[in-house]
Design goal:
By secondary structure, this protein is of the alpha/beta class. It has 13 helices and 13 strands. A seven-stranded mixed sheet has the order 1-9-8-5-4-2-3, sandwiched between helices. A two-stranded antiparallel sheet has the order 6-7. The protein binds pyridoxal-5'-phosphate (PLP).
Length: 372
């Protein structure tokens, strides 16, 4: 008999802490205070403590977190229009959008096929005199910082911005991702490891001036009420989302541990010559936001798993450099062979803390029975 295993059932995810979430939302509804209040400030403090930074500024979503970060560095004179910002070619479109939206130049760097992390040799070759910053994207929940990358950014004096949208709770040598660069950007999109019940995002940093600048730009550019220092915008984390996130944050490590236990079952059980698994990482340097597998028979495998009741997704079918919106970029004509291959071959298996071990074993069994 087939089991029915959707890729991600958010109703089940919310139900894990259903009563507490309902109460927290009701408290905000009854408080009459919905924006820029104590609940958001409390969550910002808790999240900064969790990540290990001095400051956290809640914003409306992850794309805004990235975009506001670059804008703040432009306003502070740390970056200048036309500066090049590097990022892995294998990333979600939002990382690139934030750079181009700010009049900065996008530079892509290919990734490594086994570990999926940024290719440090390619990074070293790609840095030019106009390169001023690197966005490190901890994609799939995997920390992409390595000692080699650390050496290059120090040598080349690059500003380091982490895109931690997919890696809440991830650690590298005792530090959380999100505390390793000059600034880090987080998304609380509902499907993330720490997800809201709508959009949400945050920027974490140890730089007080930068944190103030972000907060101000995200609030119309006001430095004090109705006094605008910048041509700002409106991008705020609201009190209801902050309340939900504050309920869920204390459970994040436990849920990431659960993800790891389930991922180990995939690693131990999946044995099919047609399927490659990504290299296993140390505990907690991967928080298994996405469990990707790779096969040259991707579309057939996806269809086959669907016929067995297993939902999957593709992260992502078109990398940014091949998107229509970037067809005029110099980068559009450059080959990123590993990224291009991943886009052709990646399939994400269901993995979240609400799944049972039986469900994960069923998915692995179905994969093992797949043939071309
Ligand atoms: C790597 C990465 N960066 C940025 C974003 C953008 O976040 P949001 O959807 O909250 O705008 C996402 C998520 O969607 C993401 O996965």
């Amino acid at each position: 008999m087939n089991m029915n295993i959707p890729y991600l059932d958010l109703k089940r995810v919310t139900a894990l802490h259903g009563a507490e979430i309902q109460q927290a939302v009701a408290d905000v509804v009854n408080s009459g205070w919905y924006l820029q209040g104590d609940v958001t400030r409390r969550f910002e403090h808790h999240y900064a403590d969790y990540i290990g930074t001095q400051h956290c500024v809640g914003v409306a979503n992850g794309l805004d977190a990235l975009s506001l970060t670059l804008r703040a560095y432009l306003e502070m004179g740390v970056l200048h229009e036309g500066d090049e910002v590097l990022m892995p070619a294998n990333t979600f479109l939002a990382t690139a959008l934030a750079v181009s939206d700010n009049g900065l130049k996008i530079g892509f760097v290919d990734v490594k096929e086994d570990t999926l992390e940024l290719n440090a040799d390619a990074l070293r070759n790609r840095v030019s005199p106009s390169t001023k910053a690197l966005i490190l994207v901890h994609l799939y929940g995997r920390c992409t910082y390595t000692e080699q990358v650390g050496k290059i950014v120090e040598e080349k004096n690059l500003l380091v911005i982490e895109d931690n949208a997919q890696a809440h709770g991830c650690m590298y040598q005792g530090k959380r991702t999100g505390s390793m660069g000059h600034a880090a950007c987080h998304s609380f999109y509902p499907g993330k490891n720490l997800g809201a019940l709508g959009d949400g995002g945050a920027v974490t940093t140890n730089d007080e001036e930068f944190a103030h600048t972000i907060r101000s730009i995200a609030n119309y550019g006001f430095s004090e009420k109705y006094v605008a220092k910048y041509k700002g915008r409106n991008s705020r984390l609201d009190e209801i989302q902050a309340a939900v996130l504050d309920v869920k944050l204390p459970y994040l490590d436990e849920e990431n541990r659960r993800r790891e236990v389930l991922a180990q079952i995939y690693y131990e059980m999946i044995a099919n010559d047609l399927i490659r698994l990504p290299m296993k990482m140390d505990s907690f340097s991967n928080v298994y936001h996405i469990f990707p597998v790779f096969t040259s028979h991707r579309d057939k495998l996806k269809q086959y798993l669907q016929s067995k009741g297993v939902g999957t997704l593709i992260h992502y079918p078109i990398p940014p450099h091949l998107q229509t919106c970037y067809r005029t970029l110099d980068e559009a004509s450059v080959a990123y062979p590993c990224t291009d291959r991943l886009a052709q071959e990646e399939l994400s298996l269901p993995l979240n803390p609400t799944m049972t071990e039986e469900e994960v074993r069923y998915v692995a069994d179905m994969i093992n029975a797949f043939s071309r």
